[in-house]
């Protein structure tokens, strides 16, 4: 079973929105997802793709999600809250470490495990949308923040 790396331990799901969890497995494979004491089921298509829509939830956590099919994956430390997407061009390339002379006190105080950061490496896909995103989820702290 494969999941996009954004669907991983430490992830944040947007509160008050319907959530879709998807992945890849063997064709025609039964897939079961358990989250917040509810179980959802589907079957993958002929290409092995599957998707399960969860309801919307209030903020909270941490929670655990279990996804079972041809194997079982347990995703831990899931929060439900607000998700912010940051993107851009050169205006987004200034790393925080270049502003430390102005914000050193603020940077020393950064430690909030409820803030999560998912960084996507720069890659190019010219032919079709990429379903399985690469990257990694990290908790907010001053060491990670200066690299942002």
UniProtKB/TrEMBL annotation:
<dbReference type="GO" id="GO:0005975">
    <property type="term" value="P:carbohydrate metabolic process"/>
</dbReference>
<dbReference type="InterPro" id="IPR013783">
    <property type="entry name" value="Ig-like_fold"/>
</dbReference>
<protein>
    <submittedName>
        <fullName>Sialic acid-specific 9-O-acetylesterase</fullName>
    </submittedName>
</protein>
<dbReference type="InterPro" id="IPR039329">
    <property type="entry name" value="SIAE"/>
</dbReference>
<dbReference type="InterPro" id="IPR036514">
    <property type="entry name" value="SGNH_hydro_sf"/>
</dbReference>
<dbReference type="GO" id="GO:0001681">
    <property type="term" value="F:sialate O-acetylesterase activity"/>
</dbReference>
